[in-house]
């Protein structure tokens, strides 16, 4: 029962961390795109440029790597439980 409680609470905490990290990463990317438009392009539709850049970001590897927030701690917990109980 304690393991189930640990997994549920851990999943909730990791979800909060994932959402915060995802929002932060997206805002950093948005700022970078806005700065790039202001410094280099300077003509055309700024909002469209940023929107297209964020669409590309949504399909990027970096966005998918943020899912490691779930994978790495769960693997660490599983390895710890295995080592403590079976070795």
Question: What this model shows, in words?
Answer:
By secondary structure, the chain is mainly α. The protein has four helices and no strands. It is 89% helix and 0% strand.
In brief:
The protein is mainly alpha-helical and 87 residues long.
Describe how the helices and strands are arranged:
Elements: H1 2-41, H2 46-58, H3 61-65, H4 68-86
Largest sheet: none
Radius of gyration: 19 Å
Instruction: Based on Cα principal axes, name the global outline.
Output: rod-shaped
Average pLDDT? 92
The separation of the N and C termini measures: 22 Å
The level of helicity is over 70%
In percent terms, what proportion of residues is strand?
under 5%
Parts with pLDDT < 50 across at least 5 consecutive residues: none
Give the SSE order as H and E letters. Answer: HHHH
How many strands appear in the DSSP assignment? 0
Structural class: mainly alpha
Helical segment count: 4
